[in-house]
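Summarise what follows for lecture notes:
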Amino acid sequence: MEPITEVAGRLGIEPEELELYGRYKAKLSEEYLQKLSGRPEGKLILVTAINPTPAGEGKTTTSVGLGEAFGKLGKKAIVALREPSLGPCFGIKGGAAGGGYAQVVPMEELNLHFTGDFHAITSANNLLAAILDNHIQQGNELGIDTRQIVWKRCMDMNDRVLRNIVVGLGGKTEGVVREDHFVITVASEIMAILCLAEDMQDLKKRLSRIVVAYNTAGEPVTAGDLKAVGAMAALLKDAIKPNLVQTLEHTPVLVHGGPFANIAHGCNSVRATKAALKMADYCITEAGFGADLGAEKFFDIKCRMTGLEPDAVVLVATVRALKYNGGVPKGELSEENLEALQKGIVNLEKHIENLQRYGVPIVVTLNSFVTDTEEEVRFIERFCRERNCEFALSQVWEKGGEGGIALAQKVLETLETKESHFKVLYEDALGLKEKIRTVAAEIYGAGTVNFAPAALKQIKKLETLGFGSFPVCMAKTQYSLSDDPALLGRPQGFELNVREVYVSAGAGFVVVLTGTVMTMPGLPAKPAAYQIDVDENGRITGLF
């Protein structure tokens, strides 16, 4: 690694414009961010993927490798990513810093505590929860109905036993007995607010609008009503500043914010994306999980709210994942199987069709594995070209930037020859049920939407309260286009089940829970934590 001051220096950032966290990571100062305001913007490239499988797709690896490849071609590019959550690091997924020679470093620090942003968000979330319960204990001047408290505590860890708990036990001085809940930090509305806020002033306005409960008259009670905003903002003062790190080839990377795309809006911070567009000629960012989740929310939430317009989309797939969608067990994916590939490629086809709805040029890339055969690769390339998509093979895991040159050249060619005519999927004026049905039908391929009675009641209340113009943030399994993780490939005509709907008023969207998706994940039978250790030299092992 190079000292982060050297990486920053090549971007024209002076040492005093950085807030250093050791030698290899730093935050961009407010003074530097303000200095960027008059600069022209570069091109915005979104990296997304097909539905994830146990075979792995390598979306972050591709994003990082593409940034390195731009550097090899002498182009000024910055990668803008989300921060990893401790939940997946210790759960199923392991680290989230890319892989092979397309990796963000320092990897161990990025995957664990990094610069403390997640801790700050967790603290702000739980401070609001504590102030809420204390307000009730101290006389409940706002008349909060304890049966209608919607604000939940959070922690950045997978812990299923905290999904539903009882608090206030022990006596009169211990608070009011009530049911409570935890979500994982990446699902906290404060995470979404941090990632959507333009600056501290905007952050405070958004924090003040958070709906924490309803009073006995059914009216919303906000964080502003509880006088919690100033203290929450103080906890988030440093967390709102984007973090600067580097790839293995010293390409600059802004890593900031980390909402999950299956239960939140799945994009890095607006501040980091907009800064990157001013700092370089090309900003390469990614959205979480498959394009049905991360990309849809990137377009319909992040771009809608901020005026960002992507110039191109890179859609990542693997031969192995497409064969998995075609019914091949994980243990047999290394064998050539054109029949299964032909069956499973319908998943890629649906994602191509979805992205084309937004009017943005698409480049499909195959994240290469040594077990891929020439015939399999040629089949996928022909399939993409027949659907008016550019195609390139990516070998960045094995070769770093050198292995991404073909992809980078194809992206540059696309930017030069194809115009983006970006548009959102639905209009603000559409009702909440219609927005949900639009996403379900056009993006997922659902035939019908089944609204639980409680969800219908919640939608009616939210529209009455004036939240009907908000975009919807769909919470859904990442493993399928449907709400059933077992339905692989391209399910069609299925029923999407909506069980709960609630507003994130500060973030500015309405969350829609479908199927059995959880906002607090649990650990698997054999967590990744079992493999993580510290050796005799103090080096962390097992994060991959």
